[in-house]
Design goal:
This protein starts with a strand and ends with a strand. The chain has a domain of 258 residues: Neuraminidase (6 Propeller), CATH 2.120.10.30. The strands form 7 sheets. Strands 1, 2, 10, 11, 12 and 13 form a 6-stranded antiparallel β-sheet that branches. Strands 3-29-28-27-26 form a 5-stranded mixed β-sheet, with no helix packed on it. Strands 4-5-32-31-30 form a 5-stranded antiparallel β-sheet, with no helix packed on it. The chain has 1 helix and 32 strands.
Length: 370
């Protein structure tokens, strides 16, 4: 068993290099979880307070609007099927419940709640075919004791546990071709999970783990994470074999792309004081952003690519935007709020989630005027 703080249970590798859900768990049903790091790049950063600004007029062009979240849970992941079906989840300490929140295009509300589970990554093909990473836990007063994990499947009527392990991240091409990234990498063929990458060759203490996965095609899948010996890694899977690509990053926490030749990964050193954004152009990985502001914690846990060289990177108290030429860095709009992950369908439907340690949830929506 493991005893966790609320920061660990949101499932973000930014906050702890521990899997959000791993180890044995019971099966149940419920209706109720070589990189070339060349630094000779333009990393000029504008430290605006809360908006992107037009460099000619100084007027804000886009900004982040706080949304009503419908919960006080600290939120660790965000993903959606469309701009009117977006999911996030976490653990609400005030209610002692794990929650999945759903955005229907108008407002956020609780879709499902669980007494003994906290919520991590969500992925699916439609509203009746969803996979949710869940940490199974018990309460000891105000403390949470993790006793297992699972990836539960929603079929439109109920949840069924598909395994007795958890994961950091899920990504798939169909409900018959799904990857789970964690202490091990597993593949779901629609019937059962199979081990395709053993964590045994990621040595060190604490154990390393695979934190995130994204793919352009079934024979072009990328994984990022960190080993226990303070050594980040990038792995490519061609559908048959894994190839590890060297990187100088201590820890890589998220990956996202728009095509096989435009993929981004973010991470930081193990202290969280230096953060890195990497880009893959179809041939090699290179560093396009580096943040080491001595006045703040600079760890990065989420990335979202808009395409054509535009990318957002988020983590802790900061939001960074690269417009393909220059970086703009802003503080999260609500003071003290941790931002963990980012996801969207386009620039007009882009969301950041997170929260604070005092029972405040954060969901931000990117707003750009017509």
């Amino acid at each position: 068993m493991r005893r966790f703080s609320k920061y660990v249970l949101i499932g973000s590798s930014l906050l702890a290099a521990v899997l959000s859900a791993c180890g044995g768990g019971s099966s149940s049903t419920s209706d109720g979880g070589g990189a070339d790091t060349d630094t000779d790049t333009d990393t000029d950063v504008d430290t605006d307070s809360d908006t992107d600004t037009d460099t000619d007029t100084g007027e804000p062009t886009c900004w982040w609007d706080p949304m009503e979240t419908g919960t006080s849970a600290l939120l660790g992941h965000v993903w959606g099927l469309s701009s009117s079906e977006v999911y996030t989840g976490g653990l609400d300490y005030s209610q002692k419940k794990g929650l999945v929140q759903l955005y229907d295009g108008v407002e956020w509300g609780t879709r499902w709640s669980f007494d003994d589970r906290s919520i991590g990554s969500v992925w699916g093909t439609d509203e009746n075919d969803l996979f949710v990473v869940m940490s199974i836990h018990e309460w000891d007063g105000d403390d949470v004791i993790q006793i297992g994990g699972t990836i539960a499947h929603w079929d439109g009527a109920s949840f069924t546990d598909t395994c007795d392990f958890g994961a950091w991240d899920l990504f798939g091409f169909s409900s018959n071709a799904l990857y789970a990234a964690g202490l091990k990498v597993r593949y779901y063929d629609g019937m059962e999970w199979s081990l395709i990458y053993d964590q045994g060759n990621l040595p060190g203490e604490p154990e390393g783990s695979v934190h995130a996965v994204w793919g352009a095609a079934p024979d072009d899948v990328w994984f990022v994470g960190g080993k226990g010996d303070y050594d980040g890694f990038i792995m490519h899977y061609d559908g048959e074999e894994f190839e590890e690509i060297p990187t100088t990053a201590d820890l890589l926490n998220d990956i996202h792309g728009v095509s096989a030749d435009e993929i981004y990964a973010v991470g930081n050193d193990y202290g969280g004081y230096e953060a890195t954004v990497l880009k893959y152009d179809g041939n090699a990985w290179s560093t396009i952003g580096f943040f080491d502001d001595p006045e703040k914690y600079n760890a990065l846990s989420g990335v979202w690519a808009a395409g054509n060289g535009e990318v957002f990177a988020v983590g802790w108290l900061s939001i960074h935007h690269f417009d393909s030429e220059n970086w703009t860095s802003i503080d999260a709009p609500a003071s003290g709020d941790i931002v963990t992950k980012i996801w969207g369908t386009d620039l007009n439907h882009l969301f950041i989630v997170g929260g604070a340690d005092d029972g405040v949830s954060t969901i931000l929506k990117y707003t750009c005027p017509e």
